[in-house]
């Protein structure tokens, strides 16, 4: 019964892979060639008047046991097919972010899903292949394999040229905030979590995971600015699971970060989307998304199968150096399980399905019904025409 949809989705996936995004993101992308850790400079063609950095952000990148079982191959694991349909959107941004909500501690630690995750390292190969540049590692699963998990995950990320922030192997590493220079803009990137599921910080290693603490965050922001950061993005793992609205504590922390003149406040952990907000004037204040939801997970309960790719630009005034935020858009996504796990951009997937023969469409009917609902749920929940936060395109 699964073979027919599998065949159809194979066709769709191929079509996705060949399609170039038609939206505001640039088609070209430059890759780092040198050493990648900490003060990172990416050489980009800085055109005559161009100083717009286009950013793509997704929420939680999880790996439940159903996901790695589906990715099993003869020789190991291959997660790349899951990202094939969203790769054009992820790889065309200047900087692409996600929250890695698992560790890669190696096979000797046994691969597991919920409640304590350890994921095959091929997952990181797929993230790199899909176009991710920076992964935040501070979340309630950072210590799922204790300190060895923190160390091995960072080693595996660096071996693949992936930047990271939120956990550290040494106090010295913790003390240096990640600053990425791209298209002339120096962006400081910080990440924190509310906790680690009751797993204590490793003995003598309070630096292992960044915990949310306003004094600590203010200090890190100052350090990043002293290190040259012209704009700051803070990623927070916070809030309550399955809640579609932010709570008072999230709002208070966001207000605090806005007072520190942070440009971007990016939340996750709830596994469902939570709304956006501008604190201060749209464009010049702080842009907040309380939760980016799940981007890739094995969860199927209400709203957890949907996510977004958030696109926005950081625009730097070349004279004053002042940075503002613009062009905020979101691309609703959905995780299909009809033929293995696949993250689908909903508008594209529905459009392609509409062009199919009726019999072919009926074979993927369950996905189509859910994706129509996801489109409506996500657009209703996140759109804000007053401040111009809208879906990437209409349907
Ligand atoms: Zn979480």
The percentage helix is: 25-40%
Uncertain segments: 1-50
| Tally of distinct domains | 1
Bound ligand species = zinc ion
CATH class: Alpha Beta
Strand content: 25-35%
The assigned structural class equals alpha/beta
Question: How far is the first residue's CA from the last residue's CA?
Answer: 30 Å
CATH level-4 homologous superfamily: Metallo-dependent phosphatases
Shape: globular
Sum up the structure in keywords:
single chain, 395 residues, alpha/beta, Purple Acid Phosphatase, chain A, domain 2, 9-stranded mixed sheet, 7-stranded mixed sheet, 12 helices, 30% helix, binds zinc ion
Give your account of this protein's structure.
The protein has helices at residues 3-18, 65-70, 80-83, 87-91, 122-130, 146-159, 171-175, 214-226, 248-259, 346-354, 358-363, 365-382; strands at residues 40-42, 52-61, 95-100, 134-136, 163-165, 178-182, 185-193, 231-237, 264-268, 273-279, 286-292, 294-296, 306-316, 323-336, 342-345, 390-391. With 395 residues, the protein is of the alpha/beta class. The protein has one domain: Purple Acid Phosphatase, chain A, domain 2 (4-Layer Sandwich), CATH 3.60.21. The strands form two sheets. Strands 2, 3, 4, 5, 12, 13, 14, 15 and 16 form a nine-stranded mixed beta sheet that branches. A hairpin with a 5-residue loop joins strand 14 (323-336) and strand 15. Helix 10 crosses helix 12. The longest helix is centred in the C-terminal third of the chain and has 18 residues, at 365-382. Residues 1-50 have low confidence and may be disordered. Bound molecules: zinc ion. Zinc ion binds at residues 101, 139-140, 237, 269. The site of zinc ion has 5 residues, from loops.
């Amino acid at each position: 019964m699964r073979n027919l949809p599998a065949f159809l989705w194979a066709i769709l996936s191929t079509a996705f892979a060949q399609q170039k995004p038609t939206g505001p993101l640039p088609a070209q992308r430059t890759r780092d060639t040198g050493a990648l850790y900490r003060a990172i400079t990416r050489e980009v063609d800085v055109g005559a008047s161009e100083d717009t950095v286009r950013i793509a952000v997704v929420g939680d990148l999880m790996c439940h046991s159903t996901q790695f079982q589906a990715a099993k191959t003869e020789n190991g694991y291959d997660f790349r097919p899951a990202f094939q349909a969203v790769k054009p959107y992820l790889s065309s941004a200047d900087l692409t972010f996600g929250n890695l909500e698992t560790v890669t501690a190696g096979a000797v630690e046994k691969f597991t899903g919920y409640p304590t995750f350890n994921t095959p390292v091929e997952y990181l190969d797929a993230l790199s292949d899909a176009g991710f540049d920076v992964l935040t590692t501070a979340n309630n699963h950072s210590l799922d394999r204790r300190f060895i998990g923190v160390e091995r995950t960072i080693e595996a990320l660096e071996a693949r040229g992936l930047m990271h922030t939120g956990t550290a192997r040494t106090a010295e590493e913790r003390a240096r905030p990640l600053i990425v220079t791209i298209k002339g803009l120096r962006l400081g990137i910080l990440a924190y979590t509310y906790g680690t599921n009751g797993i204590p910080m490793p003995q003598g290693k309070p630096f292992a995971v960044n915990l949310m603490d306003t004094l600590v965050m203010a200090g890190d922001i100052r350090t990043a600015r002293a290190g040259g950061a012209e704009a700051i993005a803070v990623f927070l793992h916070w809030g309550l699971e399955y809640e579609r609205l932010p709570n008072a504590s999230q709002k208070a922390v966001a207000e605090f970060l806005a007072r520190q003149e942070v440009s971007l406040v990016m939340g996750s952990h709830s596994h469902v989307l939570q709304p956006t907000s501008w604190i201060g004037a749209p464009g010049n204040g702080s842009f907040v998304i309380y939760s980016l939801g799940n981007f890739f997970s094995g969860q199927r309960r209400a709203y957890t199968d949907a996510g977004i790719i958030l696109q926005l630009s950081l625009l730097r005034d070349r004279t004053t150096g002042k940075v503002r935020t613009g062009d905020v858009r979101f691309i609703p996504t959905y995780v299909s399980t009809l033929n293995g796990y696949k993250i689908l951009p909903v508008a594209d997937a529905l459009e392609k399905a509409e062009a199919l023969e009726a019999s072919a469409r009926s074979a993927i009917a369950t996905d189509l019904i859910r994706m129509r609902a996801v489109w409506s749920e996500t657009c209703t929940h996140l759109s804000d025409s007053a401040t111009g936060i809208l879906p990437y395109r209409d349907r």
